[in-house]
Amino acid sequence: MRIVIAEDDALLREGLALLLRAEGIDVVATTDGPAAFLAAVDEHKPDVAIVDVRMPPTHTDEGIVAAVEARRRLPGLAVLVLSAYVEQAFATDLLSGGAAGLGYLLKERVGRVEEFLEALHRVAEGGTAVDPEVVGLLLSRNRADNGLDRLSPRERDVLALMAEGLGNTAIAERLVVTEGAVHKHIRSIFAKLDLAPSDRADRRVTAVLRYLEV
């Protein structure tokens, strides 16, 4: 796995690089701004980019803009975005084009090394990793007007874990239920959210993105 890091905080940037290299991951470049990041993507053609949301010069949405541009330049590039706190609009902007190979985590998650590495590998493999706090905020915001009020509390739990990017086995382990029970809950979620079996799109992704209005 070849990774480019874009983070203007030197301590976090180098800490991430050290952590990943210790795990045998090839960090091909570390950058401190969007221009250098995009140049590194062009040069190294990485598998994954880890990008801070707020970078120079304005420290607003440069990271999100750069991440979107990087995926345009290098289709298939997996991107894991890091943010100091939940920024709902930025999560929406990043994920609106599709969730495959995308992650959005709070920086505090980096300190939980196993969780961070699990999310990184999931994104690198084409999956999705969305921070539980982001999921909780979006679910809370949209529950009243998008059909989520039809879901049972357990179904909401399952949907939230789906939104984090977990598969059925991991959801079952997290909720301490059988995989069969998880499968049943997911079928019920699809039915209540009017996602027909004939829908050729990935219904898991649709259930998360459409009904979180991402």
Task: Describe this structure as you would to a colleague.
The protein is 51% helix and 14% strand. With 214 residues, the chain is an alpha/beta fold. The chain is elongated, with a radius of gyration of 17 Å. One of its GO terms (molecular function) is DNA binding. InterPro entries: CheY-like_superfamily (IPR011006), NreC/VraR/RcsB-like_REC (IPR058245), Sig_transdc_resp-reg_C-effctor (IPR016032), Sig_transdc_resp-reg_receiver (IPR001789), Tscrpt_reg_LuxR_C (IPR000792), WalR-like (IPR039420), WH-like_DNA-bd_sf (IPR036388).
Stretches where pLDDT falls below 50 for ≥5 residues? none
Mean pLDDT: 83
Q: Going across the biggest sheet, name each strand in turn.
A: 2-1-3-4-5-6
CATH class of the largest domain: Alpha Beta
Spell out the helices and strands N to C: EHEHEHEHEHEHHHHH
Strand content: 5-15%
SS elements, strand count: 6
Shape: elongated
Percent helix: 40-55%
- CATH homologous superfamily designation of the largest domain: Response regulator
Task: Return the CATH architecture of the largest domain.
Answer: 3-Layer(aba) Sandwich
What about the largest sheet? Answer: 6 strands, parallel
Modified residues (4-aspartylphosphate): 52
Keywords: DNA-binding, Phosphoprotein, Transcription, Transcription regulation
GO molecular function: DNA binding
Domain HTH luxR-type: 144-214
